[in-house]
Amino acid sequence: MIKIAIDAMGGDYAPKEQVQGAMLAIEKIDDIELTLYGDETTIRQYLTDDTRITIVQTDGVINMGEKDPISAIRSNRNSSMAQALTSVRKGENDAIVSSGATQALIAGAHILVGRLKAMKRTAIAPLIPTVNNTSTILLDAGGNIEIKPEYMLHQAYFAHIYAKEVLGVEEPKIGLINLGTEPGKGRPLDKEVFELFEQDDILNFVGNVEPKLVLDPPCDILISDGFTANIVMKTIEGTAKGLGTILKQELSRGIFGKLGMLLSIKNLKGFKKRLSAEEIGGAMIYGLRGVVVKAQGASKANGFYNGIRQAAQIVRNDVLGKVTAVIERELE
Amino acid sequence: MIKIAIDAMGGDYAPKEQVQGAMLAIEKIDDIELTLYGDETTIRQYLTDDTRITIVQTDGVINMGEKDPISAIRSNRNSSMAQALTSVRKGENDAIVSSGATQALIAGAHILVGRLKAMKRTAIAPLIPTVNNTSTILLDAGGNIEIKPEYMLHQAYFAHIYAKEVLGVEEPKIGLINLGTEPGKGRPLDKEVFELFEQDDILNFVGNVEPKLVLDPPCDILISDGFTANIVMKTIEGTAKGLGTILKQELSRGIFGKLGMLLSIKNLKGFKKRLSAEEIGGAMIYGLRGVVVKAQGASKANGFYNGIRQAAQIVRNDVLGKVTAVIERELE
Q1: What is the ipTM of this complex?
Q2: What counts of helices (H) and strands (E) characterise chain B?
Q3: Which residues from chain A sit within 8 angstroms of residue B254, using beta carbons?
Q4: Which of A90, B34, B285, B301 is the most exposed place for a label (fewest CB within 10 A)?
């Protein structure tokens, strides 16, 4: 059995959607057991089945807009997030899924779960949609503003194994986000990473990739430093949001437009759904001694379920063990 | 009269669309005279009126995919782009509009027009659309991968004056592209720029802006270093392109979808039009001793006309003179 800790109280619609997501997961996935951390009374309101479910009572929630995530975690050791993270450290669970505040989850994971010895920097790796109905791993959308090329190499190994074992891509390709495709483009960091990746035997490096192909990239993994990849992620988000607004403004013009829009409503929902982080799944935090999956803060049941599904698959295929073996072999 | 040099041979659809754009400009703008640089015979095929038009015969074109822009310019001194740039240096024209290869235009402008003494780094500043039907200046989408905060300050002054004089924004606001809104976010460069801008008397600095607001920003100017802003620009482009593809895939599903799409076709065109760089205008290259406007490579007549209109307005309102005065006063 794969044991997964659920931070039931974290997220914009917690605990309702988290508990409902957990119910979906229990229904669809046979080899998991879930422990829900949170307020038992509230959780029980949404619990429709207690097969393979344990509830652990916790007190306090880390606020979504937490400005000082480290002290938020330190001063809320009995919160659902902190308790769920601690259970992974103690080996009581194999993984945790949370849609709580990202920075608090990253900080909490460092403090309470700990970093993999082999990886010097953790990374947060969301999945972004493609025009081909697949998804691309974006690295590092999280925190490492200044990073060494060799740490990026380790993150790339992680993504490589993740793409194989979780996304089912046989020969994952990786591209370096850059402002031109020719070798030698970009900042000193980009040039160094390019050389390092090109010489590497494990990675299938396709070279530089310009973000004008961001939703139709020639690879399964897009990598950059934590500043740039975060900017890319937020620009995709901002562009999608802005274009949605403009599309609505334009489509509803005139009587034919309104009628057309009415007929298209189901398809427009399909469009929205394909872009929703909900459907694609959570972001894994790479480089920890346990499996930590961050589901979107705005997750509804289905999105949260997708996060659980992902976490189960990461454990099932022993991604952490495989990554550690690869990096340790490389470091020898 | 405002005298504008037209690189008639540069661009994906040159010279046809460039000449037709010039014809539009002559028709709509009274105080301009245009000199078209290119192959006279071909140009004359599309010329419908020669009022305030001069043609200068040139030979050779800088290829759009030019890998080595500097030597392309040096070895094609008689090309339409090089000749048009040179005419600005000589004072024969006040401005140049080109939809030729961007890097060649930047390199050519440095070599043939020269840099403003007051500005240590040039910058390329495209306009991006907003959900409110206005546009935002994006800086520096061009070349300065490594840049000092004070050079970014000068670029910001330029954009400030440009927004006032060309876009007609009375009190232009400027935001720093960053991964969080709180002061202290980002790389060392971002922190330094933040402090510098905050203390500045000329700029209306709104602080850090996350690109999830990129099409609906709380400011008229978005600034970052040349690497980051270029990545932002290309991510917007890639997201818009990808979403367009996904939208088409989704909208055309089913019989109601197809019917709805038929009814919406005019509005979908309106949507596409609003996003088109065509409609918004060209990108000015800041920091040169003349007015250099880069129209999109894929410009059609209307897009090219918009570039000419912009160039005329920059000259009419003496943007260069005003920028130089401000920077020189600051440097004293």
Answers
A1: 0.91
A2: 13, 12
A3: 266-267
A4: A90
